[in-house]
Specification:
six-stranded mixed β-sheet; 867 residues; alpha+beta; single chain; 15 helices
């Protein structure tokens, strides 16, 4: 027997508690000293035993036991046969189902007896409580909870779990996530008390750029059910219902965007413990909201994942103190020094300091298109002290995007030990790293990583301050980079399910998902729903997830969305023309998508297009390019799914659209972005590619060796140049340190990537968000070209290692935790020789191409090369 398999996972989760998947898929990693698996055997605590299965599969292997029941806990183990023989049984892993059907719910939805009033952003959180008896010993207990709003539960005075902002952000019309908690250790025989703080959250609070509230409802609600398993095997089921009471306590305002306010003098101490006097609290109302939308989340929860001690706290004047975390984050601060009773401390969060050294949020204030109205930036918390030793302020019903905090009203001189920056995001597993000999590139890489971390808050947001919206275009262009850095499989699947729920009957994919009714129909940007490059997320995101994780289930689930999106695109291309076109259409025009309103390249350098003009512009070169790209991907997806007729149909369609793009645009004067797409999406034939590449390089040189791309083309720019024989120019752009460039951000002290290339001007003035990951997609070039690590087969079962040194770099290294294990590639230059060390995990194979052109095949293990 040799050592066992490790890293057992269920679906894409390390902790699979409360799943609603009835045939969960199981994964494991082969022992480190093996090369390949020939067979496996799985056994489970519910008597399922797969027997010895001849197979090399070790990722997403379906459970094949008896049908799972609600609230069923299953332990499972695996043993494998490899080139080293039969392994020991692995350590056990577990998964547990949640409540699988509406019939499992005996609890009732409740709403506060008095719904918190006031304008949006100023509404209090409600405290809800209930006492119950546990008459017999309990051996296992679960709490199933969800809300319309955000909720945080405490049992007998102790917080339940560590998930934040539950139940998360979904398209509430069709999907509402339920959390499952193990509360066994917190229960006691006799009297118990359960308390819940319930606030507006996304459901009722302000959302998106336009700060519109009450989008899914005007009353928050709570649903909780407890399952208590006793020592004799009997079960007691309890939950929300008429016996609950509520009051408005110390959280006098709570809004995700505006911020949170506490008055600790109003805190009903002991309110979530048994014996508390709640005689003045109001009874709740029972509200029959039903259980049809309840589901689980395939993603890890949002958590507090890191604590940051400020690098400085300085006093600006008698009233103001300025905190610098040294890093732009998403989250909040924990203040542990609250001052004497009655002290009111105000905390304003921002990304930038003005010329006086004060926090400014002017660049984060939304401007309503077509009007002079400028909205508040929000991000203001406030706490009034009760003077009780040990009190701490930590506002967990809001989030902020910030590096700096202005603290006003506190009489004492605060120190870094009094304030902690709480980094809050989806607790996804880190899987990718990079470093090299150029420290500025390392800082750029970390800035992009931090931008991703700041924008994974249950959904992939565009920015963690001004909008916090799930822009479809942003995630489709960054998801390949994200999937290298973090395990975003379950996180993205959760979002794709919201995208499918949001998709219109005609196939239109909204700009953002989850999409509020206002953003879908009433927003000044509503006419841009279905924009090319944004709606194409329906195709591109599933494909990139399949490539990164080898999960065909993602493709199968997304297929209806893919078909609907392309049917809409095909209809628009065939039946409509841009108004500027006159005369009889040329035959190829039926495959040009030049109608409708589009965001276009969006925020390319010098692009001063007014928002009001977007609807009239001809974005045919952009839209047709994405049409061709998505049709081609749909063909490949259909092939993976065994849909031969669909694969051939989309192959023909993609070829026709590419031919139309080449006929219409290849000889026209185009932008850098258009030429990048022509190369990256294969829009021109082989004979034209060198000419297109030379045109792109020429435009870069004409711009003073500066990029000219915006959101959509930037991820492809450097790879397109490198693959077309312009590697040196790609490095020059990467290392350019005058505007517009990535290193300007770094030289101006950015710790996250800016939304606009000129996000902070030379004189320190800010523009738009300073934490948008889109332009940070350039770091994929560091992974795939500088370090040379490129995926070939889904899940990195086969991969390419082809370092391409340049730019004066003397060493570089990258590592990636693939589904099969850790890949490492590190090179250094010793004079003219390159030394490469490569680690290949079990069950995979690498092709190595050295700078001289020599090719090698590398199996599992560690390999060293000199070239």
């Amino acid at each position: 027997m040799h050592p066992p398999a490790t890293d057992l996972r269920t679906e894409h989760l390390d902790e699979a508690l409360g799943i609603r998947v009835t045939r969960p898929r199981l994964s494991w990693r082969l022992p480190a000293d093996t090369s390949a698996q020939s067979a496996y055997r799985i056994r489970a605590s519910n008597s399922w035993d797969s027997g010895r299965i001849t197979s090399r599969e070790s990722v997403l292997v379906p459970y094949a036991g008896r049908p799972l029941r609600s609230a069923e806990r299953v332990e499972w183990q695996v043993k494998v046969w490899t080139d080293r023989g039969e392994s020991d049984w692995s350590a056990p892993a577990r998964f547990e189902t949640g409540l699988l059907s509406a019939a499992d719910w005996q609890a009732e939805w409740i709403t506060p007896g008095e719904t918190p009033g006031g304008p949006a952003g100023e509404r209090a959180a409600t405290l809800l409580r209930w006492e119950f008896d546990v008459p017999a010993p309990v051996v296992a207990a679960r709490m199933y909870g969800t809300a319309h709003g955000v909720y945080e539960a405490s049992l007998n005075g102790a917080r339940v779990g560590d998930a934040e902002l539950t139940p998360g952000f979904t398209q509430y019309r069709t999907r509402l996530q339920v959390q499952t908690y193990d509360i066994t250790a917190a229960l006691r025989e006799g009297r118990n008390a359960l308390g819940v703080a319930l606030a507006d959250g996304w459901y009722r609070g302000q959302t998106g750029y336009f700060r519109i509230a009450d989008q899914w409802g005007d009353r928050p609600a709570l649903l909780i059910q407890l399952h208590l398993t006793h020592a004799d095997g009997t079960m007691t089921v309890l939950g929300t219902g008429p016996g609950w009471h509520g009051a408005q306590g110390h959280v006098v305002a709570a809004d995700l965007i505006a911020g949170e306010r506490w008055d600790l003098q109003r805190l009903p101490r002991g309110w979530s413990e048994a014996g508390f006097d709640a005689s003045s609290w109001l009874p709740v109302a029972v509200d029959p909201r039903g259980f049809a939308t309840l589901t689980d989340s395939p993603a890890p929860p949002v958590r507090r994942v890191e604590e940051i001690t400020p690098v400085s706290v300085r006093r600006l004047d008698e009233q103001r103190q300025i905190v610098d975390l040294g890093q732009n984050i998403n989250g909040w601060v924990r203040l542990s020094e609250l001052g004497p009773a009655g002290t009111s401390t105000r905390l304003t969060h921002g990304e930038l300091l003005d010329t006086t050294g004060d926090v400014t949020t002017d660049h984060l204030r939304p401007v309503i298109p077509g009007s002079a109205q400028i909205l508040s930036a929000g991000q203001i918390d406030e706490v009034t002290s009760a003077g009780v030793p040990g009190d701490v302020f930590e506002p967990r019903r809001t989030t902020h995007g910030f590096r700096y905090v202005r603290i006003e009203g506190h009489p004492g001189d605060l120190t870094p030990q009094d304030i902690t920056g709480m980094v809050v995001h989806s607790d996804v597993r880190r899987t990718g790293w990079f470093s090299c000999s150029d420290e500025r590139l390392n800082r750029l890489h970390e800035a992009a990583v931090w931008s991703l971390r700041g924008n994974m808050c249950d959904i992939p947001t565009d920015c963690p301050q001004r909008e916090r919206a799930g822009w479809t275009g942003d995630w489709q262009l960054f998801v390949p980079t994200a999937a290298f850095l973090y395990d975003v499989a379950g996180f993205s699947v959760k979002w794709l399910r919201d995208l499918a729920a949001d998709q219109w009957p005609d196939g239109t994919v909204p700009n953002v998902t989850p999409c509020s009714p206002h953003d879908a129909h009433d927003s000044p940007a509503a006419h841009l729903n279905g924009s090319a490059g944004w709606g194409d997320a329906a195709v591109i995101v599933p494909w990139e997830l399949y490539r990164a994780y080898g999960d065909t289930g993602i493709l199968a689930e997304a297929w209806p969305s893919i078909v609907a999106w392309l049917a809409r695109t095909e209809h628009l291309a065939r039946t409509r023309r841009h108004p500027s076109r006159t005369g009889t259409p040329a035959p190829h025009e039926e495959h040009l998508w030049d109608s409708g309103a589009h965001w276009g390249e969006w925020l390319a350098p010098g692009d001063e297009v007014a928002f009001e003009d977007l609807a009239s512009l001809d974005h045919g070169a952009v839209a047709t390019a994405f049409y061709a790209h998505s049709a081609g991907l749909a063909s490949r997806i259909a092939e993976v799914l065994g849909r031969a007729e669909d694969a051939e149909r989309y192959r023909r369609l993609g070829a026709q659209v590419r031919t139309a793009w080449e006929a219409e645009y290849a000889d026209a004067p185009l932008t850098q972005s258009d030429y990048v797409r022509a190369l990256a999406f294969g829009l021109v034939g082989a004979e034209r590619r060198p000419k297109i590449a030379d045109r792109l390089a020429g435009l870069v040189r004409e711009a003073g060796t500066h990029l000219g791309t915006g959101f959509l083309a930037t991820p492809y720019l450097l790879p397109a140049l490198a693959d077309a024989g312009h590697l040196d120019l790609a490095y020059e752009l990467l290392l350019q340190d005058t505007e517009p460039s990535w290193l300007v951000m770094i030289d101006r002290d950015a710790t996250t990537v800016w939304e606009q290339w000129d996000g902070v001007s030379a004189d320190g003035k800010g523009s738009a968000s300073l934490n948008h990951y889109s332009k940070g997609a350039v770091i994929s070039f560091l992974h795939r070209y500088v370090a040379g690590l490129q995926l070939v087969e889904p899940g990195y079962r086969r991969f390419l290692v082809q370092p391409r040194p340049g730019g004066g770099l003397t060493w570089a290294e990258a590592a990636h935790e693939s589904p099969y294990g850790r890949i490492e590639a590190a090179w250094r230059l010793d004079g003219v020789r390159l030394h490469l060390r490569l680690v290949v995990p079990p069950g995979t194979e690498a092709t190595v191409i050295l700078p001289s052109g020599r090719r090698k095949t590398a199996g599992p293990g560690t390999h060293d090369y000199v070239d």
